[in-house]
Design goal:
221 residues, single chain, alpha/beta
């Protein structure tokens, strides 16, 4: 049995993983999906990592999964807890010393979104929640939390990527981050060819069964 530690993205909460958690538990695994303290003005990246580490407790055989902005926290947790596997799901791959607020410009993400016509999509049902059932997407939006922390202005504290097997998952129908942008960034920053899954940016809500199969497959590999 593995424990999947699920770290949500910006403005989100642990609730966003509830359908995936059910799928993973049905396959005999444990899950942890805490809320990050992103609505606390005094919270930094270290506080984000502390919240996850505290939620994990004494659990072992860890797979750390970071979604979107959660990719800034996931490697910090993986290193501290000596995780067996680190997975970034449409994750904002950081570099040492890089501030989350600077990531968009430094990686070329802003230009990539403009070139793909995604920056003009203002409707969240067409960007974030494009293939999520409407009722579920509306509930997700009701549960969104404002990002008020100071984490965005903090340099990412690691001096190198953790020495932990790392996987990257591209959502092929993502309407927020261009898939080709992430394919290129994963090769440049991680030296990996990403795996791919059908679905939009919030694939944990739209395709939890398929995502669970992909994640469990990393254990078999």
């Amino acid at each position: 049995m593995a424990t999947f530690v699920l770290i949500h993205g910006g403005g989100d909460s642990g609730w966003s993983w509830h359908l995936l958690e059910a799928q993973l538990r049905a396959r005999g695994h444990d899950t942890v999906a805490p809320d990050l303290p992103s609505d606390r003005p005094d919270a930094g990246l270290g506080d984000y990592a502390d919240a996850v580490v505290e939620a994990v407790g004494e659990r072992q055989n860890l797979v750390i999964v970071g979604h979107s902005y959660g990719a800034f926290t996931a490697p910090l947790v993986a290193e501290r807890l000596r995780a067996g596997t680190l997975v970034l799901l449409a994750g904002m791959i950081p570099e040492p010393g890089e501030r989350p607020d600077d990531w968009w410009q430094r990686t070329g993400c802003i230009q990539a979104r403009e070139a793909a016509g995604l920056s003009a999509i203002e409707d969240p049902f067409e960007s974030f929640y494009r293939d999520v059932p409407r009722e579920l997407a509306e509930e997700a939006m009701r549960r969104e939390r404002e990002e008020r922390s100071r984490a965005g202005g903090e340099p990412w504290p690691l001096t190198a990527w953790p020495d932990i097997p790392t996987k990257f998952v591209v959502c092929k129908d993502d309407r927020f981050f261009p898939p080709e942008f992430f394919r290129d960034l994963a090769r440049k920053r991680l030296g990996v060819t990403p795996d791919e899954i059908a679905g939009g940016h919030c694939v944990a809500l739209s395709r939890p069964q398929e995502l669970a199969e992909l994640l469990v497959g990393y254990l078999r590999a």
